[in-house]
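Intended use. Records such as the Zn-dependent peptidase entry shown here are meant for training and evaluating sequence-to-structure methods. They are not intended to support clinical decisions.
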Amino acid sequence: MSPAKVKPVKVPELVTTLPGLGPTTKLQLPKEAEATLPNGLTVIAIRRPSVPLVEVRLRIPFGRAHPARAAMLAQTLLSGTDTMSSVEIAAELQTVGGALSAGVDPDRLILAGNGLVGGLERILELLGEVLTAARYPAEEVATERARLVDHIQVAQSQPQHIARTALLKRIYGRHPYANQLPEPEQVRAIRPAQLRALHSERVRPAGATLVLVGDIQPAKAIDTAEQILGGWAIGGDVPATKWAVPPVPALAPGALMVVDRPDSVQSSLRMALPAVPRTHPDHAALMIANLIFGGYFSSRWVENIREDKGYTYGPHSAIEHLVAGSSLTVAADVATEVTGPAMLETLYELGRIASLPPAEDELEQARQYALGSLRLGVATQAGLAGLATTYAGSGLRLNHLAEHSARLAAVTMDEVFAAATTYLAPARAVTVVLGDAARIEAPLAALTPIEKAQP
């Protein structure tokens, strides 16, 4: 008996149309207050009552500090005080659902943490204890010294770090920003007495900024901070201006630098292009131009070398802001055999955006992405605290956020094209490629003059 025939049923195709983007609304800023204490510490308190927590950020200018000593100070700042061990500090923080950590970069030392809003007073007391009585015990310093050396040695074996280091040296030359990770032997030489001396000299309230964000009453939070941290000693007699980082040198385009990594199966492409600080009139237009080029997943460059040609997984370009200057960096890691073609397409996309205006839909898509990312970035207490702290390092406050949002919403096609022509032209790029020189030199030399990095 043959099976019965089943008549196919035609299912109607379902098409869902996404709604259009709504109008851009004015960014509403949270309530905040600010005061500078007699010891020079600036306190910024911002009310964001979404959850009963408070975010704490303390930014201390730390430019031109010895890289190894600065890194070790950040590693061991919370390792104990005159009256408390590192374990006791952590236990006390846990009683208020809190935590603290420290980090350092070429511009600043930062202590960051959070906790229950009712524990703000205790968090600030412990912060004050660390700031005024950190003792850098020898056993803790030895442990963290070994850990940091291991971290540096691992980093120095990674192609991303090697390429980044080569690019920084090419960008900055003798500027302090050129060396952002100390050498292992420099770290091994650090002793507790050097850390105590650095702390006494540089961990000072003058020029520092404390940012508090959460379910707080800003004026009351500032009063609490003054009661607890108002007695923080002023520090050494050296004026803070001594440590100011000089302006970065202008980018000096030249031959593409090949950094040899024999037998490497991948090449790391790195570029730097000129950029402007957040307060510059061109900043919003440059942000949009960069997004269209390579700053997000729907950008031209990503579409070209990732989606269309499959040369790489995660190409990306971004504007990097430091206190003494800004730059636009371009990064991609590609298979060795497509190093030349990937560089060709990168130069092509830079040349295209610098010589032809983008389409209207490209501009609007990039604009909406920029505005949406801006709002998402400050939607949480931690995001808002991070941005407020970053802005403070450049002498800005949250009102700049609203101004920047308005500029993004209003930037025109002509302004974006002018910014792309001025800053993204491939002739203005500083370029470094890390890879197997024996296999990549010839394809790259067919595109642009090259030079080989000296060992």
